[in-house]
Amino acid sequence: MDQNDTREHKLSLAEVLGMLVADGMIEQAQADALVAARRGQRHDTHPLVIAAEQSWRSLIPPNKLLHLEALTEWMAKRTGLGYFHIDPLKIIDVSAITTVVSYAYASTNKILPLSVTTDEVVIATAEPYVVE
After folding, report:
1. Are the CB atoms for 56 and 66 separated by under 8 Å?
2. Banded model confidence at residue 1, pLDDT cuts 50, 70, 90
3. Rg of the chain's alpha carbons, rounded to an integer?
4. Using omega within 30 degrees of 0 as the cis cutoff, is the peptide bond preceding 61 cis?
5. What mean pLDDT comes out for the span 76-84?
């Protein structure tokens, strides 16, 4: 998929693996084997999580481990979004966040408001191509 493609859709495992192959980070055979192994399984797990579970190393020197954080950062860059590390130990101001969206809405749409000011809301997303 092209970085400039604006079709609204959720990421698929095949799409993510295709991007990794296109970027020279994994071999086509690795992608094909994973897609075949996952055929017929439920698709509740995010594609980046599935890819990270493989413990693959990038084919690009210095051959870093493709763990979830690395894949998330790569995806943000590839899709033109900013990357923000969410510190699980940092307390999020839930009262301010819920003034923007309800917990149910955020959960359903796989978004997380990170900060709220009078001028701006910063929202993290698990679906970079869903902008609605």
Report:
1. yes
2. very low
3. 16
4. no
5. 93
